[in-house]
Design brief:
The chain contains 4 helices and no strands. It has one domain. The protein is mostly helical and 89 residues long.
Length: 89
């Protein structure tokens, strides 16, 4: 999992204070998508869960307030892959 500084200044500040703007969340999701694609173009559900779980373990303030804590970030990564043309919906 990358250090928060790799997400950019605004995202790293948002991680620290726990108030993610949509722009900060997009930066995080975009970087995670790039890291995932370096390993596989077709990640499995287990791989999404593993990446998102590691993310919220390292940065607990990114955890969803309900459920498993990773649903919104995982779905945003999938959406980012679809938008970029890597995955087909």
């Amino acid at each position: 999992m990358p250090d928060k500084e790799k997400f950019g200044y605004s995202a790293s500040v948002a991680i620290d204070d726990g108030h993610l703007t949509s722009a900060a969340k997009r930066k995080i999701v975009t970087l995670l998508r790039a890291l995932i694609v370096q390993h596989t173009l077709y990640p499995s559900s287990e791989q999404y869960v593993a990446v998102c779980t590691k993310l919220v373990q390292k940065y607990p303030k990114l955890r969803d307030p309900i459920g498993s804590g990773i649903v919104s970030i995982a779905s945003q990564i999938v959406t980012e892959l679809v938008i970029s043309g890597i995955l087909f919906s």
